[in-house]
Amino acid sequence: MSTGERTQNSKADVPQGTLDLLVLKTLETMGPMHGWGIARRIEQVSEDALHMNQGTLYPAMVRLEQQGWIKSRWGVSDNNRRARFYVLTAKGRRQVSAEERKWERVAAIVARFRQPSPEGGQ
Amino acid sequence: MILLNRLLASMRKRKLEEGLDAELRFHLEMETAENVRRGMSAEDARYAAQRSFGGVERAKEAWRDRRFLPELEAWVRDLRHGARLLARSPGFTAFAVITLALGIGANTAIFTALHALVLRPLPYGDPEGLAAIWETAVFRGQPTWMSVSAPNLLDWREHNQVFEGIAAFSSGGVNLTQEHDTLRVPAARVEPDVFRILRVSPSLGRMFLRDENEPGRDRVAILSYGLWQTRFGADPNVIGRRIGVNGAAHLVVGVMPRGFQFPPRTATELWTPLVLDERAGSARGSHWLAVIARLKPGVSWTAAQSNLDGIARRIAQQYGRPDGASVEPLHGEAVRATAEMLSVLSGAVGFVLLLACANVAHLILARTAGRRRELALRIAMGAGRWRIVRLILAESVAVAAVGGAAGLLAARLSLSALLRAAGDRFPAGVPVSIDGATLWFCALVTLASAMLAGLIPALRAGQLDLTTALKGAAGSTGAAPRRRPSLLMVCEIALALALVIGASLLVKSLKNLSQADLGFRPERVLTVKAALPQAHFQTGAQTAAFYDRLLADLRVVPGVSRAAAITLLPVESEDIRSVFSIEGRDPAAPGNEPGALVRIVSPEYFEAIGIPLLRGRCFQEADVRSGRLVTVINRRVAESYFPNQDAVGQSIALGVGDGRDAWMTVVGVVGDHWNGGQSDPVPMMIYTPLRQFQWPLGTMSLVLRTSGEPEALAGAARRIARQLDPNAALFQVRTMMRVVSDSATGTRLLSRLLTLFAALALVLAVVGVYGVMSCLVSQRAHEVGVRMALGSSRGRVLAQLLGRGLLNAVAGSIVGCGCAIMASRGLQKFVIGVPVIDLWTYLLSSLAIVAVALLASFLPAWRASRADPLVALRNE
Predict the structure, then answer these.
(1) I want to staple B562 with a disulfide (CB 3.0 to 4.6 A). Which of A122, B39, B49, B608 is the partner?
(2) How many domains in chain B?
(3) CB B221 within 8 A of CB B271
(4) Residue in chain A nearest B61 by alpha carbon
(5) Cβ neighbours of B20 in A, within 8 Å
(6) Does residue B513 surpass a pLDDT of 80?
């Protein structure tokens, strides 16, 4: 992917480290979901502005599970197919709020830099 | 935690992989269905789904890397490969495994003993804060440690700011009388605070009360768990029973828990209160106590030492005494003797293991050389260097793992033999067994061996030069041209030599011991220790009268030709010198007074033990307390202090200055004798007659010269003693030959083990040298072929190859002598009558090892010189 200027329409790559938060946040709002559902949901919420190889989701799910933030079990999907469902754990819930607070802090700092400085910088 | 998760996952890999496949299939099908719903054709929908998914295999691979432990799996694969290779060459494998098993087993066994006997904390509450305190003095420029005198102890106790508590004890045996049976049991008299300082409490009954160290209140006793079990039938009502201790009734007040030992690392069975103002024991010059203390929390050892130094200085000023004080952790003090012996053994087995590793390293190196083409191919096909290193390391890890397991078994089997051989050189009653710490140690040593043995070959294989290796040129090995000595061979020879030297020194010591001029005749002499109950023997006259009667009765027993008694037998004696004064001479400077070992003997002693009279006379029946006080000295005292004059007729007195005893006239000079592995092997001796000694004596050794088998007389002696006093105990019946041999148990044990290890090392070194030379020769087969084709004679080729072996052997010997000199400090304690750096031993051992190395080099060299030059050249 080019890191140069982007037009309004080009999709952004999923920034490093945010995929975890997106998955956790999705599970927090939507409850138990299977992998495809999570991938769909992330794309929908971002209004297709994010570019993500859906395949990268699965290694991420292993990592989240190993951290103890999510659990998985086999279940039956809406269309009556066997599918693996992921559920947020209590530890995962705490992680979500911690991550969110971190993001808010970072976002606030970035926002402060984006305002034109009162000393009349460029 | 995550690592464990991944490890567990690796074990059900197939199931998890199937799950992933199902999950991904589901994902793609859902996406395809969704795309179809959006209006794509079935085919487009499938392609679009795959596009948005990305590479399926890549996703799977990334998933696997997270889910499992790929590095570990690679190791397992390489290990399997290594194991298969090993199985294909059973000769190499068996040799390498046995070599490592011996090395690892020996190390594990010694470590098990070291851990149990030396490293493990003492079994008291909070043992780190426990201290031992001794008095120190300078004797002839040498700092020496002494027991503590009671007044000094009281001063320390009163004036220190660093100890929570200080308490004294004094150990020795007591006569324990139950019904009509008297036996001698190891015991200690302790101040009541000792148990509080140790933070232990009895499992039955109570500790001593604070005031039970006052005369009259001290008739109480605490039993060890073992004594309670064996002599009191584990009777739960033993508390409150009366037992006879040294002839006086004592009340049993407590039983200590199982495994409790005090003094540490001794098999003490009984404790009674220590009364401080006993007999002459209250004088400042009378050193007889051992002292323990507990540091206050947060006080450092240096702070404690300087606090004691201050008190000692005040004592020195006030009373004009040179006594210092020294404090150290109780643990270090308790394990010192065992640690000295085990550290020598640790060093020796360490050498053996290094040697074993060097050998295996060399074997792997030789094998790797044979695999050069295969390895080069692997590299050419894209295997990383690290992968090659891992491949070779896996082989050594596989060998070491099997060797380690076999070693653990060997350690288990040899441990009991080691403990048996050590006898009383290891403290009694401390369990020594293979436990968790041992297993960890064994695992670590195994891993270290694998690395030591595998790293050099692995790294060298990693640096393989592709082009030459693939071309298959036999001339270069990827290793530097071997003009310098072979490092492995030098190491092997050096390690083996160091062990051979150590073993030779000990063997020579033992030989000296058996051939040494003992100065007495130990054949057909029986010795028995006798202990009298203090309660019935309050004066020296009573003691003397008892022994007069006992010895007179013994003399008429058939087979006894001489019967005598002495306070401490030659050879087993401790090294406590007494200072003395000589009449008519100015007092010597403090720390420089004449000194000698003092023994109290009955009249016939010199005849019974076989020490010759050189001048004057021996003691007689008429030398009694009311008569003139007399003494007999040995030749060394006579020659050192009365040179060029007749010692007989001079007068000497024990002690110096104000503490001097009455003058005694020297009436005879007797021969010197050898005193065992002490710092002063032929001591200066002063003998005084039993009948002129004014204090009662606790124990003496009976010396019976016999005309028949000495052992047969023990029963008769015991019967006679019991008739005289039922509370008297006779124990430790040994022939004098046995006493002499017991004095060298430590040296004998070390010498046996070191000889064993040295023999092992020698075999390993021979095999190693043979291997190195074979390898060298095969590497140079081409060169040799060319030389011979150009007209070099077989003899010259042989000489040249042997020359290389000789070079390595000599270099190894020099390094080995260096190692031995560095290690000799540890042996100092055990080498008797030989300097630790004994030129002859070093020279002969070096020559022997060079000869052995040359012999081992000969076969490969000879084979090379016989080889057909055409064959060697055709390999090109």
Answers:
(1) B608
(2) 4
(3) yes
(4) A59
(5) 58
(6) no
